[in-house]
Write a structure and sequence with these properties.
- The chain is α/β, with parallel strands linked by helices.
- It folds into 3 domains: about 100 residues, no CATH class; about 130 residues, no CATH class; about 230 residues, no CATH class.
- The protein is about 35% helix and about 10% strand.
- Helix 18 crosses helix 19.
Length: about 625
């Protein structure tokens, strides 16, 4: 009899129930099940062990189906998303560029805060490495004992002094370029105008010639023959300098300029003398190539310092912090702003009009001493004019009106006259207004108003104008005459004249071309050619006479006039204000500009600014 399957409940279970968390999975043993045939023939019970105790596949064993390989980051970027690489590079470059710009701005704000006018349209220079020091003047890069890169200016000891105008004109640009290169090697930005004005020694990498020689950076041995020309310092001689030590610091002004006018030179001398005195620098003037001849033919020599000039190769045109600074008409616009910034910083001034005026006035009082004969004449002339003013029945002295009228190649600032000249009627109208102001407060009726008018002009035709027919010349010792007067004159020393066959007059005023051709051969009178050639003694004598006449005119106008009327576009007009002094010219209104609404400007043209309104 077939045994029966007993499924009755029992207290001792024979079946183990898998916890709910264990899922039955299809396993290999289960998949291979073939039905009852697979069961053992000797088994009397159905065995569920193959279902209940089949464990899940071990994670440590290889999967039955090959797993799909995960994509790496490189696959995603370079295979499936190549544009992401480009975008990432662009983003990174943009961020780095922005950070670099911010750091540059914050680290050197002064570099972008001011424009650099000296770099506009400036030539580009190429620095060339070489073993020895060059045999011509130029800035050079050197390495000190610590292998730190520095720079200085090398001028051969046997080089002629002063340098040519062309060499001086390029030297400042070279100094700027070399300074910028050296600072770039130290990972620093070039010096801006504001940075250079903020310190006496703004460029830490510049080494003065004296220190460079002591450190062995420059040779102290002179090569070649001694120079043929070593300059001429006004008022100094070998005897006067013998036994004196070299000056510790100095400022030398070279009287040479491409401009023919004298006014700029005089204003510059007065201003630089005051700046040198204030900064403790000995002041020297070199007139070896002055277009007007010898300085002492026109003025007394400036006061001599208690030391002698330094060796010529130590006199540098740049930078402004040089121990022995040399200034010429070609370098003034580069050096003057730095010198004035030092004056402003030390004096705690605002560098306004009065401050610049006072600098020029102090120089005028120290240096303006005409040669003995001219000074005697000027004093006599002033006394004569003032005596005429006192010879009257009026209760007051007759007012003296001085007119400075500039023609020639100097045109007014005022727009309507900028291509011509201010008419004589305008000068006369201003004069009448000032005359009425002088008579205000008196009981004198207008019909009895009187005045003495004196005129200084570069154009002799002004004296023939109807408005000035009764005016007196400021001085008659040396006069610029018309051609008719020259041809009619004999050897009268009071007239500047040429031989009759080469006579030409000053009709129209002072022109540069006329000045450079004074005394020149009529067959060879090209301006540039005459400027390059060494002038003859006769040429220098004629030019000196022109300069002396100019200075005597100004001296008489400033000394004799109650009111001076002039156009501020002319430097002579600005010189007159300085000679009168601030109180008399500005506060009391003794100086009157008839050329638009401009004020006194001094050397504004060299400071990169416009005339002061």
């Amino acid at each position: 009899m077939t045994p029966r399957l007993d499924l009755a409940p029992s207290t001792q279970g024979k079946v183990m129930i898998a916890p709910p968390r264990i899922n039955l999975r299809r396993t290999t043993s289960y998949n291979d099940y073939r039905g009852p045939a697979a069961l053992s023939s000797t088994s009397s019970r159905l065995n569920f062990n193959h279902l209940l105790f089949s464990p899940p596949p071990s994670p440590s064993l290889p999967a039955l189906v090959p797993r799909r390989r995960k994509r790496s980051a490189s696959d995603i970027l370079f295979v499936h998303r190549p544009s992401r690489v480009v975008r990432a590079i662009l983003y990174l470059s943009t961020i780095l560029g922005a950070l670099y710009w911010v750091v540059s701005v914050l680290g050197s704000r002064n570099v972008i805060s001011l424009p650099l006018p000296y770099l506009r349209d400036a030539p580009q220079y190429e620095m060339v490495a070489q073993d020895g020091v060059p045999d011509f003047p130029t800035p050079v890069v050197v390495s000190d004992a610590k292998q730190q890169t520095r720079w200085t200016v090398s001028i051969p000891r046997n080089y002629e002094f002063p340098l040519s105008m062309e060499e001086y004109s390029t030297m400042n640009g070279l100094c700027r370029e070399v300074s910028a290169r050296v600072r770039d090697l130290h990972h620093k930005a070039p010096l801006s105008d504001r940075t250079m004005a903020s310190s006496d020694r703004p460029d830490d990498y510049f080494v003065d010639v004296h220190e460079a020689e002591q450190a062995g950076l420059l040779s102290v041995v002179s090569r070649g023959q001694p120079p043929k020309h070593s300059g001429h310092f006004v008022g100094l001689s070998y005897d006067s300098m013998s036994g004196k030590p070299f000056c510790r610091t100095s400022l030398t002004y070279v009287l040479e300029s491409p401009k023919a006018g004298l006014g700029d030179t005089i204003m510059t001398i007065w201003t630089l003398h005051s700046l040198a005195k204030e900064q403790g620098r000995a002041f020297f003037i070199d007139d070896s190539r002055w277009a007007y001849g010898t300085y002492t033919d026109m003025f007394f020599a400036p006061p001599a310092p208690s030391c002698r000039p330094p060796p010529r190769h130590q006199m540098l045109p740049c930078p402004a912090q040089a121990r022995h600074l040399l200034v010429s008409g070609m370098t003034l616009e580069h050096v003057l702003p730095a010198l004035l910034a030092t004056h402003q910083r030390h004096g705690q001034t605002d560098l306004g009009t009065k401050d610049l005026f006072d600098l020029a006035h102090a120089g005028f009082k120290s240096l303006f001493h005409l040669n003995q004969d001219d000074q005697v004449y000027v004093k006599k002339r002033i006394r004569e004019i003032k005596a005429k003013a006192q010879y009257t029945k009026l209760p007051i002295d007759i007012p003296i009106l001085g007119f400075h009228i500039r023609h020639g190649d100097r045109h007014p600032f005022e727009y309507q006259y900028r291509d011509t000249y201010i008419p004589s009627e305008v000068f006369a109208s201003y004069g009448q207004t000032e005359l009425e102001a002088l008579y205000n407060g008196t009981s004198i009726p207008p019909e009895k108003f009187q005045s003495i008018r004196i005129i200084a002009s570069d154009d002799p035709m002004v004296h023939e104008e109807p408005d000035f027919s009764d005016a007196l010349p400021a001085q008659a010792r040396i006069r610029l005459a018309t051609k008719a007067v020259i041809e009619a004159a004999n050897t009268d020393p009071n007239y500047l004249h040429h031989p009759a066959d080469q006579a030409f007059g000053w009709e129209g005023g002072f022109f540069s071309a006329m000045f450079w051709n004074l005394g020149a051969d009529a067959k060879n009178n090209a301006v540039e050619e005459q400027r390059r050639q060494q002038p003859s003694d006769d040429t220098l004598r004629l030019r000196s006479l022109v300069g002396r006449a100019y200075m005597m005119d100004l001296a008489v106008l400033a000394g004799a006039s109650d009111k001076v009327l002039c156009g501020v576009s002319a430097m002579g007009c600005r010189l007159l204000a300085v000679m009168m002094g601030w109180e008399r010219a500005m506060q009391e209104g003794g100086w009157v500009n008839v050329d638009g609404g401009y004020g006194w400007g001094g050397l504004d043209e060299y400071l990169g600014g416009q005339q002061r309104a």
